[in-house]
Write a structure and sequence with these properties.
The structure is a single chain. By secondary structure, the chain is an alpha+beta fold. It has one domain. The chain has 3 helices and 3 strands, in the order E-H-H-E-E-H. Strands 1-3-2 form a 3-stranded antiparallel β-sheet. A hairpin with a 2-residue loop joins strand 2 and strand 3. The chain is globular and about 50 Å long.
Length: 64
């Protein structure tokens, strides 16, 4: 099991550290593990969270 800290998650997702922290605070980000003040993320949880945000293209509109 690979554990990432919040800086590594931010780099992986190419977002700011503040975004990762905001997602955790709002409970909208990837599942995390807290041990005291330490916050860690399983790589597979981050990848699953990212897959859950995929947006599928809608069917093409009919030509008029």
């Amino acid at each position: 099991m690979e554990l990432l800290d919040e800086k590594q998650v931010a780099r992986l997702l190419r977002v700011s550290l503040a975004s990762v922290r905001r997602w955790r605070q709002r409970k909208t980000g990837p599942t995390c593990i807290k041990a005291g003040a330490c916050v860690r993320y399983r790589r597979e949880d981050v990848e699953a969270w990212l897959r859950g945000r995929e947006v599928k293209p809608e069917a093409a509109c009919d030509a008029r």
